[in-house]
Amino acid sequence: MTIKVALIQLRVVDVKEKNLKNAIDLIRIAKKEKEANLVVLPECFNAPYTADTLRDVAEEIPAGETCRALSNAARDFGVYVVGGSIVESSGGRLYNTCTVWGPEGDLVATYRKVHLCDSSLSGKTTVAETKLFTPGDAYTTFTIGDTRVGLGICWDMRFAEFATAYRTMGCDLLIYPAVCDVPTGEQHWELLAKARALDNQTFVAFCSPARDTHAKLIPYGHSLLVDPWGRVLQRATEFQEIVVADLVLNEVSTVRRRIPVFEQKRTDLYELKVGSA
User: Fold this and answer.
1) How far apart are CA 227 and CA 178, in angstroms?
2) What kind and span of H or E run contains 243?
3) pLDDT tens, 121-141?
4) Residue extents of the structural domains in the chain
5) What is the DSSP string of 43-105?
6) Catalytic residue numbers?
7) How far is CA 10 from CA 32, 48, 90, 171, in A?
8) Which residues contact 227 (CB under 8 A, 6 or more apart)?
9) What is the CATH number of domain 2-263?
10) What is a single molecular function from GO for this protein (predicted)?
């Protein structure tokens, strides 16, 4: 089986409606012109990544404006859409949430970001996520044919155990919509994608917004797809573009057969008992 994945690295502007129109136009191109059957948007794709702006665009799932737009696009173009992430309002709390829409326009999965980021590798924290969001507490997977896909959002990519849990659940593809600043991206973006792919012998997709040098947090860009050998299949520039790659799923079984590390794990040694005599 082959899945043609399109990562939509769109430029985010100040007007939510313009971002939604841009996203829908690019989903159409990804399906109609590039023949993708799975389309991925970036983290917080419908608004600039600042605390005030994110609060302003919060909406309920699935009733909100962004969800309706993604559902219609998935149905109209007959494609799976991983809707990056949006700010979800639920029960008086805000979540950084990824929605996935099937080709019939149905909501097939919802994932709330588990690991919230307050780090400031670049020297400043643009959004203190723990002050804005409530963390999720569950893994989320969905299937395309026989392929199980695991979801994370941005900072989740740094947690090796999280990705390994998805591999244990049977995932062959891990998708991380993300907003990563330029200094962090230059040091860790590709390295993390390769590490998660190689450790777990899965395909890995990181999807970023396009770079905007006037933004408060300037996105790194360079969305990329990595195969189970740790090789970069496709990589974007920093500009708005669509990156497409064919994921040949039998590569997963080939890698796992030739390098059977999950059969060789010594899980009896890995759990440390802190404080035991």
Assistant:
1) 19
2) strand 241-248
3) 666 656 789 999 999 999 999
4) 2-263
5) TTTTS-SSHHHHHHT-B-TTTSHHHHHHHHHHHHHT-EEE---EEEEETTEEEEEEEEE-TTS
6) 43, 113, 154
7) 17, 12, 27, 27
8) 197, 203, 233, 247, 251
9) 3.60.110.10
10) omega-amidase activity
